[in-house]
Specification:
With 257 residues, the chain is α/β, with parallel strands linked by helices. Helix content is 38%, strand content 16%. It has an eight-stranded parallel β-barrel with strand order 1-2-3-4-5-6-7-8, surrounded by five helices. Helix 1 packs parallel to helix 2. The structure holds 2-phosphoglycolic acid. 2-phosphoglycolic acid binds next to strand 8. The site of 2-phosphoglycolic acid has 13 residues, from strand 8.
Amino acid sequence: MMGAPRAARLIIGNWKMYLTASEAVALARDLLPRLPDLADREVAVAPPFTALSAVGAILEGTPLRLAAQDLFWEDQGPYTGEVSPAMLQELGVAYVLVGHSERRRHLSETDLMVARKAKAALRADLKPVVCVGEEEGARESGRAHGKVRSQVARALEGISRGEVSNVALAYEPIWAIGTGKAAAPADVSEMHALIRAELRRLFGDPGSEVRILYGGSVSPSNIDTFMGAAGVDGVLVGGASVQADDFARIARSRQPA
Ligand code: PGA
């Protein structure tokens, strides 16, 4: 049985560690006039922590939403260097990336840590965008589906049926990130259908309300194809999101007929 229709398309620009605070402010200012009409979609940018406050001030009162790239799972305490959900919420953050493959790889984030972070985000009324995706070797050896299915189940452990509609998933095959080698739209649709089936198995009807984004070398030249691909509810954009023209073009993409 189908659940309620999913929320609007979601497009997030992940600015990674590309920009200082002043550069991020300049990019936000550049971007806003290029995004006049976002009525039917949600668009957000995720600056580095050091730029959240300044970029948040610029976005206030505009349709462009603020996202963060990470958070810690505890609410408060002796955790040097970490940033709590409440700290993000106070700055007007709406979405938070969780479990990006660059953090899994360079900072050894595990599925258990990702699950804790996702739950901590929900406690503070932040919407977690949980990132999953297989390595090249897993795809080549036919293990991509199993790998992603298990990442989804582990990352969402402990989340209730009532909460899950506030979660988004981003399917980002690791070999497609930052390589200019985007996945084939048909393969993306196949993986999104598998993720959807897993969500329904875990959560029943509310699993139909979770948005599933694609990420990995999304660009102005391939965005229309991805937005038109079956089962794609939005995109997570890295490199192209730090070019104002490119990101605006991506954010304004119209699904082809
Ligand atoms: P990319 O990064 O668009 O530069 O491939 C995507 C991501 O890491 O979210």
